[in-house]
Structures are given as structure tokens and as C-alpha cells.
Amino acid sequence: MMESYIQAGKIVSDIRSEASKMIKDGALVIDLVEYVESEILKRGAEIAFPCNVSINEIAAHYTSPANDKTQFKAGDMVKLDLGAMVDGYIADSAVTVLAEGNMDENYTQDEINLHEEIIEASAAGLEAAIATVRAGAELSKIGAAVHEAIGEYNLNPIFNLTGHSLEQNNLHAGISIPNYDNHDNYKLDEGQAIAIEPFATNGEGIVNDAPGHYIFAYLANKPFRMKSTQKVLKYIQTNNPYVPFSGRWITDEFGERRGNIALKQLSEAMAIYPYAPLREKKDCFVSQKEHTVVVEKEGCTVTTI
Questions:
Q1: How does pLDDT run across 159-179, given as a tens digit for each residue?
Q2: Among the options 61, 115, 147, 172, which is catalytic?
């Protein structure tokens, strides 16, 4: 098990490093997303969830649909969140970078300085959280460490986003890792794998659903009169029964019209769950940094460093 966690983490770390260099003015988001997902497969792992590329006030859950024309602008705050599985054991990691280019065309120097501080704050929150992890550590203490570190920058964490425990073939295994002291006295066990992901913002620290659905998860088998929709559901059950999948994967396989009709029908019937992108309540910028760790008696092993 530990070897698989380590192997998955190395794959994610290597790809995260290379993919971050692609975040430049004028580059297409879809090219970055497809690079990350194809590299995971090339290295013999499975995709744990669609590559998320969330920009500025969007905190999470955006991945490119088919033919996405979204481009990076110099100075954009880009959150790259990726995950890989080896034998079902998951590595989940994220980093935030400012898109390269002539940032002065889009932002003032004061804005650029603020954006850099927001990025530093989520990194500091992650470092503080990791320092608290050990067998017996209470979740509330981890959250308090995140909040305190981000607060030193006079910024807020995202209070209604959390990290999560990981198990084989299970990305969100039931335990939430808070970004503030939520008074949860659950204690970590040796050998548990968790993903810690502080988000920092100059806004209120609350996210709401934004329009659109680009990421989905299988929920249940349901009967459908349309054979095409039943065929799409069968495909999802076969290929993505445990972890989230991209609507783009479905439209690539079945065509945009047929795939999108099926996704809509499956979502309405609750055969699949549609994830909305998450936007900061005051449309303020959001950064994220995330690592996967395995809990040890006197600390933890960071698999995605």
C-alpha cells in the first residue's frame, strides 16, 4: 500500500512541476488539462479525477469541456489540481501560480503583490497543517493551524472547503480536513492517508456554486428509455465507477450532442452527480496548495512533495 502511495505521489509531483510551466499568457486551458491527464496515463497510473484548472475567483471544480477556448491571461491566479492512482491508491496535489507574461497589462503592481501574498498564504497554511499531523492529532487542531497561518497575511481561508481522507479507489473517504478550528475532535490514526488543501482569499472565505457542470461522479444504476443514455451510463459504470470523471471524456467518446444530452438526463435522474464550479462569494481571488500525506506515529510522510 505505502509503495503505491509513494509511486502515485512521485508521478503527480513530476507532472505538476512540468505542467506548471505551461501556465502562460495566451495558452489554452484545455491544452494544460489534456497534457496532465495524458501524462498520468503514459506513466502507467490511472486518473484519480479530472485535472482541475480554476482561475482567479473560481476556487475549484473547473475542467475544460470539449473545444474549450478559455485562455490564460498574464497575472491570472491559476490553481492546478491533479490526482493519480496506482493500484487504486491516490495522490492528490495542487499548486497555484500566476500566469507568466506581461502582468502590467492586466493588473497593477499593488494587485500583483496582493496576488503573490494570497499564494504565499495558502502555502503557509499547508506547511503549518503538515507540521501538526501525527497519529492522535485532532482535526480541529489542523484546521486551527491553517487558519492562524493564513490569518497572519490578513487573509481568510475558504471556510466551506476542506481536505479529505483517502482510501483505495475512494477519493473522498469520509473524513474532512478543515481549514479552520471547527471543533472536530476526531483523531487521526497511524497509516491513514489524507489530502490537506488550504485555500486562501482576500474575500469573505465562502464559496458558492457558479454556472455550468464539467465534472461528474457515478451514483447509481437507473433505467432509461433512451438507449443512447443507457449506453453512456454503462460506459461510466465500466470506466469510472469509483472516482469523478470529466464531461469532456464522455463527449469525446459519444460526440458533443449525444454526450451532453446523456449527461443532462443522468444528472436529473441522480444516476450521476454534477459538480458545479465553486466561486468566491465576493468574486475575490483564491489560491490553493495541497499535498497528500500518510499519517505516522510522530509525524507524516508527504507523498506528493
A1: 999 999 999 999 999 999 999
A2: 172
